Write a sequence for this structure.
């Protein structure tokens, strides 16, 4: 069993990592137009991408065309990704509670874990409706699967803290 200070430090590290990853993943939605503008020349120059990963290259080109045309003609469409980013940041801020008092706010971590699990059925349902390729669905689902790990580690640490009390 780890000492209390080491355990609290590990819990905080997992939570800060999760909060930063969540906020960063949301904030990358804001400059989508600009990001795709940077990515397209890279994919175009890397002929190997098109040969090795044709579905990926075609998908990125399709997304780029939709964003360039949609945002160009209807800039208010980007407002949806602005709110997506806001949601990510707002949820990340909720994890300040467990940073301050992990035992009392363990429910926030459990909420985050349930949200991570919900990514899988949500992805399978809505990405099918929106005609998102299956390989991209796997990428999206991997976020829910991967980010549950630091939350689970933080929760385990909190449970260990409660046993020490």
């Amino acid at each position: 069993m780890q000492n209390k200070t080491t355990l609290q430090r590990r819990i905080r590290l997992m939570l800060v990592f999760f909060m930063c990853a969540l906020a960063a993943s949301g904030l990358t939605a804001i400059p989508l137009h600009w990001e795709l503008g940077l990515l397209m020349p890279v994919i175009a120059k890397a002929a190997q991408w098109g040969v090795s990963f044709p579905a990926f290259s075609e998908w990125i080109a399709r997304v780029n065309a939709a964003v360039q045309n949609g945002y160009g003609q209807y800039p208010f469409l980007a407002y949806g990704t602005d709110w997506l980013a806001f949601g990510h940041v707002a949820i990340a801020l909720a994890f300040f509670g467990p940073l301050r008092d992990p035992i009392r706010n363990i429910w926030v971590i459990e909420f985050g874990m349930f949200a991570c699990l919900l990514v899988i059925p949500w992805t399978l349902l809505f990405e099918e409706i929106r005609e998102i390729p299956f390989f991209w669905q796997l990428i999206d689902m991997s976020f829910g699967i991967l980010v549950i790990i630091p939350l689970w580690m933080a929760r385990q640490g909190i449970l260990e803290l409660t046993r020490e009390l």
Q: What stands out?
A: Residues 4-164 form one domain. The longest helix spans residues 134-164. The radius of gyration is 19 Å. The chain has a mean pLDDT of 92.
